[in-house]
Amino acid sequence: MMETENQQIGNQIKPKTTILCSICDLAFTPSEQKTLICTNCIINQTDITVGITKEGIVNYCRFCHRYLRPPWTLCERESKELLSICLKRLRGLNKVKIIDAAFVYTEPSSKRIKVKLTIQKEVLNNTNMQQTFICEFVEHYQQCEDCKKEFTPHTWGAAVQVRQRVDHKKTFFYLEQLLLKYNANDKVLKIEQVDDGLDFFYKSRSHANRLVEYLSTILPIRVQQSKQLVSHDASSNLFNYKYVYAVDLPKVCKDDLVILPQKLCKELGGVGRVQLCYKLTTIIHLIDPLSMKCSDLSIEAFSLYENEIEVYNLKTHQHEFTVVDVERIHTRNLNESYISSSQNAFLPKLTRVTIIRESNNYVPVTVKSHLGDILKTGQVAIGYDLTQLTIESLEDISNYPECILVKRQINKEARKLRIFKLKRLEAQNVMEEEGGERKRNQQKKQNDQEEQFEEFLDDVEKDKEMRKNINLYRDEEKIKKLSKEDLKKKQKKQVQQQKKDNDDEWQDDDEDDVKLEDLMKDLNLEDKPELAEPVDEVQDEINQFITKLEKVTIEK
Q1: How far apart are CA 437 and CA 65, in angstroms?
Q2: pTM, whole model, 2 decimals?
Q3: How confident is the model at residue 522 (pLDDT cuts 50, 70, 90)?
């Protein structure tokens, strides 16, 4: 039913039309609503929050007090950052307009977050409607990635990665024995073995620094340091880092053939370009095969010319030579101070050796050598044959030796009479692989390392200077297996060497052999000592002694 009311507009009176609501029969002006339903009925009959989620979950890390956005973000309670995270958890807000949003106070211990939202939406013939409702979020505890790293058991705080990119492990075998002798690995958590070196893991940075400082006193190294942030406590402004020390060794090892660039030779005092590395300490010790003069190459100079220096290892390029004659080159006319200098340390051992290449129709060749106290006629020497090596830089060198002798070949049968052993580090091999071809390659690498370690034992047995830095232990099992005749032969050989004529100017190589009395006993703390007498007999003796004490009278 339609009713009419008068409305005055200026001097004219215009009638006002009202209609009744189709639901509640309340009179209202249709021009205001543009519908047949009044305002109250629209509010009661329409819900614009339909399709909007009113509950949600917020991931919270209680160790670092951060919320998952992602990423993990540090937010205070009832902050605008936390409000933004909560609103992103609600679905359906893209269809409405947000007028207002605010937090409703809740206790932190309740693990609840309440947000009061006011939204607006158009309904029924361009009619806008606002509605207010409350959304509730539950805090779920979840450990963030940074806290997982921090609370992981057996974690490490610093690591030392020692690398040498060569085809053998000779340097690492020697480094391993130095660490064991001076107990430089006492604070290590674990040791991992990789193809190019070893990884040492420590709990603290100071322990890793201690190892790096020790390595700098025994080997020429280059160190690079890096760090990675593990966790950050914003409340106390504390940072937790993991440190990694990359220790790089030069690609030069003992007994390697080194071809130096011409510019570096001038800086070293005009030495020849063809050099032999005879020792490796904090510097690289080189010797000229022609003049027998020694020179020292620092790690800084090596790093500067690293791309121009050529290195050839003995393991890959070795040749065998039979010694025909050994003739000493006398140096009596030279000044003693000249001979005793570091550059001329090998002049007293200088010899002229006639050798035969077995691969060249037994043609004799005469070369100079610094192995005068080692080589004898009839023995087999190992060295480099420069005529067989493919070295392009040799074309630019006018004068270089045909052959370079490095050491005497050791009979492999003598390994059976070896009465000492070395301790090894407990390193975990992280390069273990399973499956057909990979497994065969791994077995081949393992066999190659075992052969290299036997060669290292040969060098230790004949090098007296090297044994000063290594602890040698008795191999009780090997000694028990050896027959009495073998031991008598070995002892007789040592006695004959001690009775050798003192006028002999040459030092026999057998004098440097390892003697049984110089070896240490391997102490195993897990072994229980054997009792000299049964426990019952010892207890009876104690009881008898106490009985005698009771019978003793003390006189004043």
Answers
A1: 50
A2: 0.63
A3: low
